[in-house]
Amino acid sequence: MALPKITESMIRAGASPESFRRGKEYFEEGAISNTAIQDTVLSGECAGTYSPYYRAQAELDEAGIADASCTCLYEYGGYCKHIVALLLAYLHHPKSFTMRKTLEELLADLDRDDLTAILTKMIQEQPDLYDRIEAMTAVPSKSKKKRRKKVDIEVYRRRILSIAHSLDGMRMSEAYWHVGGLANQLREVQESAMKFLDAGEAESALEILLVLLEESSRGIEYIDDSDGELGGFVGDLGPSLAEAILSMELSQVERDRLARRLEKLIDYAGDYGMEGNLDIAVQAAKYGWGDVPKKMESVRRIASKFNEDEEPDDWDEDKDWDEEDDDEFSKWGLPIMSGIDDLTEAKLNVLDRQGRAEEYLALCKKEERHLRYALKLCDLKQTVDAVKYAKKHLTTAEETLEVARRLRELRLVAEAIEVGEHGIKLKGSKAGLGEWLGPVEEAQGRTKQALTAWLAAFVEHPSLETYKTIKRLAGSGWRSLRPEAMAKLRKSYDKQVLAEVHLLEEEWDEAIQVAEGRDVWYPVVETVADGVMQHRPEWVAKISLKHAERLMSEAKSKNYPIATAWLKRVKQAYKLLGKTDEWKDYLEETRGKYKRRPALQNQLTRL
Question: 607: closest CA among 596, 594, 260?
Fold first, then answer.
Protein backbone atom coordinates (compact mmCIF):
# COMPACT_ATOMS: atom_id res chain seq x y z
CA MET A 1 0.00 0.00 0.00
CA ALA A 2 1.34 3.45 -0.95
CA LEU A 3 1.49 5.62 2.15
CA PRO A 4 -0.24 9.02 1.90
CA LYS A 5 2.12 12.00 1.70
CA ILE A 6 2.00 15.18 3.74
CA THR A 7 4.05 18.39 3.82
CA GLU A 8 5.25 20.66 6.58
CA SER A 9 2.91 23.41 5.40
CA MET A 10 -0.06 21.09 5.95
CA ILE A 11 1.07 20.50 9.52
CA ARG A 12 1.59 24.22 10.10
CA ALA A 13 -1.86 24.96 8.66
CA GLY A 14 -3.52 22.84 11.33
CA ALA A 15 -1.54 24.10 14.33
CA SER A 16 -0.92 27.41 16.04
CA PRO A 17 2.60 28.83 15.63
CA GLU A 18 3.38 28.02 19.27
CA SER A 19 2.09 24.43 19.02
CA PHE A 20 4.13 23.88 15.87
CA ARG A 21 7.27 25.30 17.49
CA ARG A 22 6.88 23.12 20.59
CA GLY A 23 5.98 20.07 18.52
CA LYS A 24 9.07 20.51 16.36
CA GLU A 25 11.21 20.65 19.51
CA TYR A 26 9.60 17.43 20.74
CA PHE A 27 10.28 15.73 17.42
CA GLU A 28 13.91 16.87 17.32
CA GLU A 29 14.40 15.69 20.92
CA GLY A 30 13.13 12.21 19.99
CA ALA A 31 10.03 12.43 22.18
CA ILE A 32 7.96 10.29 19.77
CA SER A 33 8.10 6.50 20.14
CA ASN A 34 6.11 3.33 19.43
CA THR A 35 5.00 4.71 16.07
CA ALA A 36 2.69 2.67 13.88
CA ILE A 37 0.30 2.95 10.97
CA GLN A 38 -2.96 1.03 10.59
CA ASP A 39 -4.32 1.46 7.10
CA THR A 40 -4.07 5.28 6.95
CA VAL A 41 -4.14 6.03 10.69
CA LEU A 42 -0.87 7.07 12.33
CA SER A 43 -0.32 6.53 16.03
CA GLY A 44 2.50 7.06 18.48
CA GLU A 45 3.41 7.88 22.05
CA CYS A 46 4.84 11.29 22.90
CA ALA A 47 6.61 12.12 26.15
CA GLY A 48 4.31 14.26 28.29
CA THR A 49 4.58 17.00 30.87
CA TYR A 50 1.95 15.71 33.29
CA SER A 51 1.93 12.08 32.16
CA PRO A 52 4.68 9.61 31.16
CA TYR A 53 3.33 9.83 27.63
CA TYR A 54 0.33 10.90 25.58
CA ARG A 55 -1.21 8.86 22.79
CA ALA A 56 -1.46 10.82 19.54
CA GLN A 57 -3.29 9.74 16.38
CA ALA A 58 -3.71 11.21 12.91
CA GLU A 59 -5.79 9.95 10.00
CA LEU A 60 -4.47 10.60 6.50
CA ASP A 61 -6.18 10.58 3.13
CA GLU A 62 -5.24 11.53 -0.39
CA ALA A 63 -5.91 15.18 0.49
CA GLY A 64 -3.50 15.21 3.42
CA ILE A 65 -4.41 15.17 7.13
CA ALA A 66 -8.07 14.25 7.55
CA ASP A 67 -8.28 14.21 11.36
CA ALA A 68 -6.09 14.11 14.46
CA SER A 69 -6.51 13.57 18.20
CA CYS A 70 -4.46 13.26 21.38
CA THR A 71 -5.06 12.11 24.95
CA CYS A 72 -3.60 15.33 26.38
CA LEU A 73 -5.78 18.15 27.74
CA TYR A 74 -4.99 20.71 25.01
CA GLU A 75 -8.15 22.74 24.20
CA TYR A 76 -6.91 25.82 22.38
CA GLY A 77 -7.71 24.91 18.79
CA GLY A 78 -5.67 23.13 16.13
CA TYR A 79 -3.17 20.33 16.63
CA CYS A 80 -1.44 20.07 19.98
CA LYS A 81 2.38 19.81 20.14
CA HIS A 82 2.20 16.01 20.49
CA ILE A 83 0.23 15.66 17.25
CA VAL A 84 2.67 18.00 15.52
CA ALA A 85 5.59 15.86 16.73
CA LEU A 86 3.89 12.68 15.45
CA LEU A 87 3.20 14.21 12.03
CA LEU A 88 6.75 15.52 11.71
CA ALA A 89 8.07 12.07 12.59
CA TYR A 90 5.98 10.60 9.78
CA LEU A 91 6.99 13.36 7.36
CA HIS A 92 10.73 12.86 7.91
CA HIS A 93 10.89 9.15 8.83
CA PRO A 94 7.83 7.36 7.35
CA LYS A 95 9.62 3.99 7.23
CA SER A 96 10.02 4.03 11.02
CA PHE A 97 6.25 3.50 11.37
CA THR A 98 5.39 -0.16 11.91
CA MET A 99 2.59 -1.50 9.71
CA ARG A 100 -0.23 -2.99 11.82
CA LYS A 101 -3.52 -4.68 11.02
CA THR A 102 -6.72 -2.70 11.40
CA LEU A 103 -9.00 -3.66 14.28
CA GLU A 104 -11.46 -5.23 11.82
CA GLU A 105 -8.70 -7.39 10.34
CA LEU A 106 -7.46 -8.33 13.80
CA LEU A 107 -10.89 -9.52 15.00
CA ALA A 108 -12.21 -10.92 11.73
CA ASP A 109 -11.58 -14.60 12.54
CA LEU A 110 -12.76 -14.52 16.16
CA ASP A 111 -16.17 -15.87 17.19
CA ARG A 112 -18.48 -14.65 19.99
CA ASP A 113 -16.80 -16.78 22.67
CA ASP A 114 -13.36 -15.50 21.71
CA LEU A 115 -14.52 -11.88 21.87
CA THR A 116 -16.26 -12.46 25.22
CA ALA A 117 -13.09 -14.02 26.64
CA ILE A 118 -10.99 -11.06 25.47
CA LEU A 119 -13.42 -8.53 26.98
CA THR A 120 -13.57 -10.46 30.24
CA LYS A 121 -9.79 -10.53 30.48
CA MET A 122 -9.56 -6.80 29.79
CA ILE A 123 -12.17 -5.98 32.44
CA GLN A 124 -10.33 -8.10 34.99
CA GLU A 125 -7.18 -6.12 34.32
CA GLN A 126 -8.96 -2.75 33.98
CA PRO A 127 -12.17 -2.82 36.10
CA ASP A 128 -13.13 0.71 34.99
CA LEU A 129 -13.91 -0.68 31.54
CA TYR A 130 -16.99 -2.40 32.98
CA ASP A 131 -18.61 0.97 33.75
CA ARG A 132 -18.00 2.18 30.21
CA ILE A 133 -19.42 -0.98 28.67
CA GLU A 134 -22.44 -0.84 30.99
CA ALA A 135 -23.10 2.77 29.95
CA MET A 136 -22.88 1.84 26.27
CA THR A 137 -25.35 -1.03 26.65
CA ALA A 138 -27.80 1.13 28.67
CA VAL A 139 -28.80 3.20 25.63
CA PRO A 140 -32.46 2.45 24.72
CA SER A 141 -32.70 -0.10 21.93
CA LYS A 142 -34.32 0.83 18.62
CA SER A 143 -35.50 -2.73 18.20
CA LYS A 144 -39.29 -2.99 18.34
CA LYS A 145 -39.10 -6.64 19.31
CA LYS A 146 -38.05 -5.69 22.81
CA ARG A 147 -40.68 -3.52 24.50
CA ARG A 148 -39.37 -1.38 27.33
CA LYS A 149 -41.26 -0.58 30.51
CA LYS A 150 -42.70 2.91 30.86
CA VAL A 151 -40.03 5.24 32.20
CA ASP A 152 -40.34 6.17 35.89
CA ILE A 153 -40.34 9.95 35.56
CA GLU A 154 -39.85 10.45 39.30
CA VAL A 155 -36.38 8.91 39.00
CA TYR A 156 -35.45 11.73 36.65
CA ARG A 157 -37.18 14.34 38.80
CA ARG A 158 -35.10 13.27 41.79
CA ARG A 159 -31.94 13.39 39.69
CA ILE A 160 -32.77 16.90 38.44
CA LEU A 161 -33.61 18.15 41.93
CA SER A 162 -30.38 16.65 43.24
CA ILE A 163 -28.43 18.59 40.62
CA ALA A 164 -30.38 21.80 41.17
CA HIS A 165 -29.78 21.68 44.94
CA SER A 166 -26.14 20.56 44.66
CA LEU A 167 -25.00 24.09 45.50
CA ASP A 168 -27.05 24.29 48.70
CA GLY A 169 -24.87 25.03 51.71
CA MET A 170 -22.22 26.86 49.71
CA ARG A 171 -21.52 30.51 50.27
CA MET A 172 -23.10 32.60 47.52
CA SER A 173 -19.68 33.78 46.32
CA GLU A 174 -18.54 30.15 46.07
CA ALA A 175 -21.72 28.77 44.47
CA TYR A 176 -21.55 31.42 41.76
CA TRP A 177 -18.55 29.69 40.18
CA HIS A 178 -20.29 26.29 40.05
CA VAL A 179 -23.43 27.24 38.09
CA GLY A 180 -21.79 26.36 34.79
CA GLY A 181 -21.01 22.86 36.03
CA LEU A 182 -24.56 22.51 37.31
CA ALA A 183 -25.92 23.43 33.87
CA ASN A 184 -23.65 20.83 32.28
CA GLN A 185 -25.04 18.13 34.58
CA LEU A 186 -28.55 19.13 33.54
CA ARG A 187 -27.46 18.79 29.90
CA GLU A 188 -26.54 15.19 30.64
CA VAL A 189 -30.17 14.58 31.66
CA GLN A 190 -31.23 16.25 28.41
CA GLU A 191 -28.92 13.90 26.50
CA SER A 192 -30.55 10.94 28.24
CA ALA A 193 -33.94 12.14 27.02
CA MET A 194 -32.62 12.42 23.47
CA LYS A 195 -31.38 8.83 23.63
CA PHE A 196 -34.97 7.74 24.29
CA LEU A 197 -36.00 9.82 21.29
CA ASP A 198 -33.33 8.19 19.14
CA ALA A 199 -34.72 4.81 20.19
CA GLY A 200 -38.23 5.77 19.04
CA GLU A 201 -39.59 6.34 22.54
CA ALA A 202 -40.80 9.91 22.09
CA GLU A 203 -43.28 9.84 24.97
CA SER A 204 -40.56 9.01 27.50
CA ALA A 205 -38.29 11.66 26.00
CA LEU A 206 -40.99 14.31 26.24
CA GLU A 207 -41.84 13.54 29.86
CA ILE A 208 -38.19 13.80 30.88
CA LEU A 209 -37.79 17.09 29.03
CA LEU A 210 -40.94 18.57 30.55
CA VAL A 211 -39.78 17.73 34.07
CA LEU A 212 -36.35 19.09 33.19
CA LEU A 213 -37.92 22.38 32.06
CA GLU A 214 -40.14 22.60 35.13
CA GLU A 215 -37.55 21.85 37.83
CA SER A 216 -34.66 23.69 36.15
CA SER A 217 -36.76 26.84 35.83
CA ARG A 218 -37.63 26.72 39.51
CA GLY A 219 -33.94 26.53 40.34
CA ILE A 220 -33.57 30.20 39.43
CA GLU A 221 -35.24 31.10 42.74
CA TYR A 222 -32.34 29.80 44.83
CA ILE A 223 -29.39 29.85 42.39
CA ASP A 224 -27.31 32.93 41.60
CA ASP A 225 -27.49 32.91 37.80
CA SER A 226 -25.84 36.28 37.23
CA ASP A 227 -24.01 35.01 34.15
CA GLY A 228 -27.16 33.45 32.69
CA GLU A 229 -25.72 29.92 32.46
CA LEU A 230 -28.78 28.22 33.96
CA GLY A 231 -31.15 30.51 32.05
CA GLY A 232 -29.29 29.78 28.83
CA PHE A 233 -29.72 26.06 29.36
CA VAL A 234 -33.45 26.39 30.09
CA GLY A 235 -34.02 28.66 27.10
CA ASP A 236 -32.30 26.20 24.76
CA LEU A 237 -34.64 23.30 25.57
CA GLY A 238 -37.11 24.42 22.88
CA PRO A 239 -35.74 22.43 19.91
CA SER A 240 -35.45 19.19 21.91
CA LEU A 241 -39.01 19.55 23.18
CA ALA A 242 -40.24 20.32 19.66
CA GLU A 243 -38.52 17.24 18.23
CA ALA A 244 -40.07 15.00 20.89
CA ILE A 245 -43.55 16.46 20.24
CA LEU A 246 -43.25 16.11 16.47
CA SER A 247 -42.24 12.47 16.94
CA MET A 248 -45.56 11.62 18.63
CA GLU A 249 -49.03 10.99 17.27
CA LEU A 250 -51.30 13.27 19.31
CA SER A 251 -55.01 14.01 19.10
CA GLN A 252 -56.17 17.61 18.99
CA VAL A 253 -57.26 17.37 22.63
CA GLU A 254 -53.82 16.11 23.63
CA ARG A 255 -52.18 18.89 21.61
CA ASP A 256 -54.25 21.58 23.29
CA ARG A 257 -53.53 20.17 26.73
CA LEU A 258 -49.80 19.97 26.01
CA ALA A 259 -49.74 23.51 24.57
CA ARG A 260 -51.39 24.89 27.73
CA ARG A 261 -48.92 23.05 29.95
CA LEU A 262 -45.99 24.36 27.95
CA GLU A 263 -47.30 27.93 27.93
CA LYS A 264 -47.63 27.85 31.69
CA LEU A 265 -44.05 26.58 32.10
CA ILE A 266 -42.72 29.08 29.56
CA ASP A 267 -44.54 32.00 31.22
CA TYR A 268 -42.84 31.08 34.48
CA ALA A 269 -39.44 30.88 32.77
CA GLY A 270 -40.16 34.14 30.94
CA ASP A 271 -40.71 35.96 34.23
CA TYR A 272 -37.02 35.36 34.89
CA GLY A 273 -35.87 36.07 31.33
CA MET A 274 -35.29 32.40 30.50
CA GLU A 275 -37.79 31.88 27.67
CA GLY A 276 -35.09 31.70 24.97
CA ASN A 277 -36.45 29.64 22.07
CA LEU A 278 -38.98 27.68 24.10
CA ASP A 279 -41.79 29.05 21.94
CA ILE A 280 -40.76 26.51 19.28
CA ALA A 281 -42.15 23.76 21.53
CA VAL A 282 -45.53 25.53 21.74
CA GLN A 283 -45.60 25.88 17.96
CA ALA A 284 -44.90 22.15 17.63
CA ALA A 285 -47.76 21.34 20.01
CA LYS A 286 -50.25 23.67 18.34
CA TYR A 287 -49.44 23.15 14.68
CA GLY A 288 -47.57 19.84 14.51
CA TRP A 289 -46.41 19.18 10.95
CA GLY A 290 -48.63 21.93 9.59
CA ASP A 291 -47.45 25.42 8.69
CA VAL A 292 -47.10 28.04 11.43
CA PRO A 293 -49.08 31.21 10.55
CA LYS A 294 -46.59 33.70 9.22
CA LYS A 295 -47.81 36.59 11.35
CA MET A 296 -47.34 34.59 14.55
CA GLU A 297 -43.69 33.99 13.74
CA SER A 298 -43.12 37.64 12.95
CA VAL A 299 -44.74 38.89 16.15
CA ARG A 300 -42.61 36.55 18.25
CA ARG A 301 -39.45 37.82 16.55
CA ILE A 302 -40.40 41.44 17.25
CA ALA A 303 -41.37 40.74 20.86
CA SER A 304 -38.07 38.96 21.42
CA LYS A 305 -36.08 41.73 19.75
CA PHE A 306 -37.44 44.56 21.85
CA ASN A 307 -38.02 42.53 25.03
CA GLU A 308 -41.61 43.74 25.24
CA ASP A 309 -44.17 42.11 27.51
CA GLU A 310 -47.12 43.06 25.34
CA GLU A 311 -47.90 43.14 21.65
CA PRO A 312 -48.19 46.55 19.93
CA ASP A 313 -51.35 48.42 20.83
CA ASP A 314 -52.45 48.63 17.21
CA TRP A 315 -52.17 44.88 16.66
CA ASP A 316 -55.28 43.53 14.98
CA GLU A 317 -55.75 39.75 15.13
CA ASP A 318 -57.91 39.85 12.03
CA LYS A 319 -55.55 41.98 9.96
CA ASP A 320 -53.81 40.11 7.17
CA TRP A 321 -50.04 40.17 7.20
CA ASP A 322 -48.53 41.71 4.09
CA GLU A 323 -45.14 42.36 2.56
CA GLU A 324 -44.97 45.89 3.99
CA ASP A 325 -44.99 44.42 7.48
CA ASP A 326 -42.15 42.08 6.55
CA ASP A 327 -40.18 45.02 5.16
CA GLU A 328 -40.73 46.96 8.37
CA PHE A 329 -39.21 44.15 10.43
CA SER A 330 -36.38 43.65 7.95
CA LYS A 331 -35.25 47.26 8.56
CA TRP A 332 -34.36 46.20 12.08
CA GLY A 333 -32.45 43.14 10.88
CA LEU A 334 -35.20 40.80 12.08
CA PRO A 335 -35.61 37.63 10.02
CA ILE A 336 -39.17 36.49 9.44
CA MET A 337 -38.01 32.92 9.92
CA SER A 338 -36.36 32.22 13.24
CA GLY A 339 -33.11 30.75 11.96
CA ILE A 340 -31.38 27.52 12.75
CA ASP A 341 -33.47 26.79 15.84
CA ASP A 342 -36.91 27.23 14.31
CA LEU A 343 -39.61 24.63 13.89
CA THR A 344 -38.44 23.68 10.41
CA GLU A 345 -35.08 22.64 11.81
CA ALA A 346 -36.81 20.49 14.41
CA LYS A 347 -38.89 18.85 11.70
CA LEU A 348 -35.81 18.13 9.63
CA ASN A 349 -34.09 16.56 12.64
CA VAL A 350 -37.07 14.28 13.22
CA LEU A 351 -37.22 13.21 9.58
CA ASP A 352 -33.49 12.59 9.59
CA ARG A 353 -33.69 10.52 12.77
CA GLN A 354 -36.51 8.43 11.35
CA GLY A 355 -34.77 7.85 8.03
CA ARG A 356 -37.49 9.57 5.98
CA ALA A 357 -35.08 10.85 3.33
CA GLU A 358 -37.55 11.79 0.61
CA GLU A 359 -39.70 13.83 3.01
CA TYR A 360 -36.55 15.39 4.42
CA LEU A 361 -35.41 16.54 0.98
CA ALA A 362 -38.88 17.79 0.09
CA LEU A 363 -39.06 19.94 3.24
CA CYS A 364 -35.56 21.30 2.59
CA LYS A 365 -36.64 22.40 -0.86
CA LYS A 366 -39.89 23.88 0.36
CA GLU A 367 -38.19 25.92 3.09
CA GLU A 368 -35.05 26.62 1.04
CA ARG A 369 -32.72 24.93 3.47
CA HIS A 370 -30.13 24.52 0.76
CA LEU A 371 -27.20 23.58 2.98
CA ARG A 372 -29.05 20.75 4.69
CA TYR A 373 -30.33 19.55 1.30
CA ALA A 374 -26.81 19.36 -0.11
CA LEU A 375 -25.45 17.63 3.00
CA LYS A 376 -28.24 15.04 2.86
CA LEU A 377 -27.45 14.30 -0.78
CA CYS A 378 -23.86 13.66 0.31
CA ASP A 379 -25.03 11.24 3.00
CA LEU A 380 -27.23 9.46 0.47
CA LYS A 381 -24.16 9.01 -1.78
CA GLN A 382 -25.85 11.07 -4.50
CA THR A 383 -22.54 12.78 -5.09
CA VAL A 384 -23.07 14.25 -8.53
CA ASP A 385 -26.37 15.80 -7.49
CA ALA A 386 -24.86 17.07 -4.23
CA VAL A 387 -22.05 18.91 -6.00
CA LYS A 388 -24.37 20.31 -8.65
CA TYR A 389 -26.91 21.48 -6.06
CA ALA A 390 -24.27 23.04 -3.81
CA LYS A 391 -22.74 25.02 -6.67
CA LYS A 392 -26.14 26.25 -7.78
CA HIS A 393 -27.80 27.11 -4.47
CA LEU A 394 -25.20 27.78 -1.77
CA THR A 395 -24.39 31.46 -1.50
CA THR A 396 -21.55 31.75 1.04
CA ALA A 397 -18.06 30.36 1.47
CA GLU A 398 -18.97 29.10 4.95
CA GLU A 399 -21.76 26.89 3.56
CA THR A 400 -19.60 25.41 0.83
CA LEU A 401 -16.93 24.60 3.43
CA GLU A 402 -19.42 22.41 5.29
CA VAL A 403 -20.31 20.49 2.15
CA ALA A 404 -16.68 20.18 1.09
CA ARG A 405 -15.77 18.76 4.49
CA ARG A 406 -18.62 16.25 4.33
CA LEU A 407 -17.48 15.09 0.89
CA ARG A 408 -13.94 14.65 2.13
CA GLU A 409 -15.19 12.58 5.07
CA LEU A 410 -16.75 10.32 2.45
CA ARG A 411 -13.34 10.04 0.72
CA LEU A 412 -14.62 12.07 -2.23
CA VAL A 413 -11.64 14.40 -2.46
CA ALA A 414 -12.09 15.52 -6.07
CA GLU A 415 -15.70 16.48 -5.41
CA ALA A 416 -14.73 18.24 -2.16
CA ILE A 417 -12.17 20.31 -4.04
CA GLU A 418 -14.69 21.21 -6.74
CA VAL A 419 -17.14 22.55 -4.17
CA GLY A 420 -14.37 24.31 -2.24
CA GLU A 421 -13.04 26.08 -5.32
CA HIS A 422 -16.56 27.27 -6.11
CA GLY A 423 -16.95 28.59 -2.54
CA ILE A 424 -13.78 30.69 -2.73
CA LYS A 425 -15.55 32.81 -5.33
CA LEU A 426 -18.64 33.42 -3.16
CA LYS A 427 -19.39 36.10 -0.58
CA GLY A 428 -18.93 35.70 3.13
CA SER A 429 -15.83 34.99 5.19
CA LYS A 430 -13.34 32.93 3.19
CA ALA A 431 -10.65 32.47 5.86
CA GLY A 432 -11.90 29.09 7.08
CA LEU A 433 -12.44 27.74 3.58
CA GLY A 434 -9.07 29.01 2.35
CA GLU A 435 -7.18 27.50 5.29
CA TRP A 436 -8.96 24.17 4.71
CA LEU A 437 -8.67 24.14 0.92
CA GLY A 438 -5.04 25.29 0.64
CA PRO A 439 -3.43 22.15 2.14
CA VAL A 440 -5.87 19.89 0.26
CA GLU A 441 -4.98 21.48 -3.07
CA GLU A 442 -1.28 21.27 -2.30
CA ALA A 443 -1.58 17.57 -1.45
CA GLN A 444 -2.92 17.06 -4.96
CA GLY A 445 -0.01 18.97 -6.49
CA ARG A 446 -2.32 21.82 -7.53
CA THR A 447 0.00 24.68 -6.64
CA LYS A 448 -1.87 27.44 -8.45
CA GLN A 449 -5.20 26.53 -6.81
CA ALA A 450 -3.52 26.16 -3.41
CA LEU A 451 -2.09 29.65 -3.80
CA THR A 452 -5.53 31.07 -4.59
CA ALA A 453 -6.98 29.45 -1.47
CA TRP A 454 -4.19 30.68 0.81
CA LEU A 455 -4.47 34.20 -0.58
CA ALA A 456 -8.19 34.23 0.25
CA ALA A 457 -7.36 33.15 3.80
CA PHE A 458 -4.54 35.69 4.12
CA VAL A 459 -6.80 38.64 3.31
CA GLU A 460 -9.06 37.94 6.31
CA HIS A 461 -6.75 36.06 8.65
CA PRO A 462 -3.17 37.17 8.01
CA SER A 463 -0.34 35.35 9.73
CA LEU A 464 3.38 35.03 9.25
CA GLU A 465 3.09 31.33 8.43
CA THR A 466 0.46 31.98 5.76
CA TYR A 467 2.72 34.67 4.29
CA LYS A 468 5.59 32.17 4.12
CA THR A 469 3.31 29.59 2.49
CA ILE A 470 2.14 32.06 -0.15
CA LYS A 471 5.72 33.12 -0.87
CA ARG A 472 6.80 29.49 -1.29
CA LEU A 473 3.87 28.57 -3.53
CA ALA A 474 4.26 31.69 -5.68
CA GLY A 475 7.81 30.76 -6.66
CA SER A 476 9.09 32.98 -9.44
CA GLY A 477 5.82 34.90 -9.43
CA TRP A 478 6.40 36.20 -5.92
CA ARG A 479 8.02 39.43 -7.09
CA SER A 480 4.79 40.58 -8.78
CA LEU A 481 2.50 39.12 -6.13
CA ARG A 482 4.20 40.54 -3.03
CA PRO A 483 3.06 44.18 -3.49
CA GLU A 484 -0.57 43.00 -3.53
CA ALA A 485 -0.05 40.85 -0.43
CA MET A 486 1.66 43.69 1.44
CA ALA A 487 -1.08 46.15 0.48
CA LYS A 488 -3.69 43.84 1.99
CA LEU A 489 -1.53 43.32 5.05
CA ARG A 490 -1.13 47.06 5.65
CA LYS A 491 -4.91 47.44 5.67
CA SER A 492 -5.25 44.79 8.37
CA TYR A 493 -5.75 45.87 11.96
CA ASP A 494 -3.22 43.20 13.03
CA LYS A 495 0.04 45.14 12.98
CA GLN A 496 1.82 42.24 14.68
CA VAL A 497 1.85 40.25 11.45
CA LEU A 498 2.96 43.26 9.41
CA ALA A 499 5.88 43.79 11.76
CA GLU A 500 6.83 40.09 11.66
CA VAL A 501 6.79 40.12 7.85
CA HIS A 502 9.09 43.15 7.67
CA LEU A 503 11.48 41.43 10.09
CA LEU A 504 11.37 38.25 8.03
CA GLU A 505 12.30 40.23 4.94
CA GLU A 506 15.01 42.13 6.88
CA GLU A 507 13.25 45.43 6.32
CA TRP A 508 14.38 46.90 9.61
CA ASP A 509 13.32 50.51 9.09
CA GLU A 510 9.87 49.51 7.84
CA ALA A 511 9.42 47.33 10.94
CA ILE A 512 10.40 50.29 13.16
CA GLN A 513 7.89 52.47 11.34
CA VAL A 514 5.15 49.95 12.20
CA ALA A 515 6.22 49.90 15.86
CA GLU A 516 6.06 53.70 16.02
CA GLY A 517 2.56 53.85 14.57
CA ARG A 518 -0.48 55.12 16.46
CA ASP A 519 -2.32 52.78 18.84
CA VAL A 520 0.18 49.96 18.32
CA TRP A 521 0.07 47.32 21.06
CA TYR A 522 3.15 46.76 23.19
CA PRO A 523 3.73 43.16 21.95
CA VAL A 524 4.33 44.63 18.48
CA VAL A 525 6.95 47.03 19.83
CA GLU A 526 8.59 44.21 21.80
CA THR A 527 8.70 41.99 18.69
CA VAL A 528 10.31 44.73 16.62
CA ALA A 529 12.78 45.70 19.35
CA ASP A 530 13.99 42.10 19.64
CA GLY A 531 14.05 41.67 15.87
CA VAL A 532 16.15 44.77 15.04
CA MET A 533 18.43 44.59 18.08
CA GLN A 534 21.51 43.61 16.07
CA HIS A 535 20.75 46.04 13.26
CA ARG A 536 19.28 49.16 14.92
CA PRO A 537 20.52 49.06 18.55
CA GLU A 538 20.30 52.84 18.94
CA TRP A 539 16.53 52.75 18.26
CA VAL A 540 16.07 49.80 20.60
CA ALA A 541 17.88 51.67 23.40
CA LYS A 542 15.73 54.77 22.89
CA ILE A 543 12.34 53.03 22.74
CA SER A 544 13.19 50.64 25.58
CA LEU A 545 14.24 53.47 27.90
CA LYS A 546 11.03 55.30 27.10
CA HIS A 547 8.80 52.34 28.09
CA ALA A 548 10.88 51.33 31.11
CA GLU A 549 10.91 54.80 32.64
CA ARG A 550 7.20 55.27 32.11
CA LEU A 551 6.45 51.98 33.88
CA MET A 552 8.79 52.71 36.78
CA SER A 553 7.35 56.19 37.30
CA GLU A 554 3.82 54.83 37.81
CA ALA A 555 4.81 53.22 41.15
CA LYS A 556 2.88 50.02 40.49
CA SER A 557 4.78 46.93 41.58
CA LYS A 558 2.98 44.71 39.04
CA ASN A 559 4.65 46.74 36.27
CA TYR A 560 8.20 46.38 37.58
CA PRO A 561 8.96 42.99 35.94
CA ILE A 562 7.83 44.45 32.60
CA ALA A 563 9.98 47.53 33.12
CA THR A 564 12.95 45.27 33.93
CA ALA A 565 12.43 43.37 30.68
CA TRP A 566 12.70 46.68 28.79
CA LEU A 567 15.84 47.58 30.75
CA LYS A 568 17.42 44.26 29.75
CA ARG A 569 16.98 45.36 26.14
CA VAL A 570 18.62 48.69 26.98
CA LYS A 571 21.58 46.84 28.51
CA GLN A 572 21.98 44.64 25.44
CA ALA A 573 21.65 47.59 23.04
CA TYR A 574 24.23 49.66 24.98
CA LYS A 575 26.64 46.72 24.83
CA LEU A 576 26.23 46.52 21.04
CA LEU A 577 26.82 50.27 20.83
CA GLY A 578 29.93 50.04 22.99
CA LYS A 579 28.31 52.07 25.77
CA THR A 580 28.70 49.65 28.67
CA ASP A 581 29.95 52.39 31.00
CA GLU A 582 26.96 54.58 30.18
CA TRP A 583 24.69 51.67 31.03
CA LYS A 584 26.33 51.18 34.42
CA ASP A 585 25.98 54.88 35.19
CA TYR A 586 22.31 54.84 34.19
CA LEU A 587 21.56 51.78 36.30
CA GLU A 588 23.26 53.27 39.35
CA GLU A 589 21.34 56.53 38.89
CA THR A 590 18.03 54.62 38.58
CA ARG A 591 18.71 52.66 41.76
CA GLY A 592 19.29 55.87 43.62
CA LYS A 593 16.24 57.56 42.16
CA TYR A 594 13.92 54.73 43.28
CA LYS A 595 15.73 53.67 46.48
CA ARG A 596 12.46 53.81 48.48
CA ARG A 597 10.79 51.16 46.29
CA PRO A 598 12.02 47.76 47.52
CA ALA A 599 9.96 45.82 44.96
CA LEU A 600 11.62 47.72 42.12
CA GLN A 601 15.05 47.44 43.75
CA ASN A 602 14.58 43.67 43.86
CA GLN A 603 13.96 43.66 40.12
CA LEU A 604 16.90 45.94 39.37
CA THR A 605 19.31 43.59 41.14
CA ARG A 606 18.62 41.08 38.32
CA LEU A 607 20.25 43.42 35.82
Answer: 594
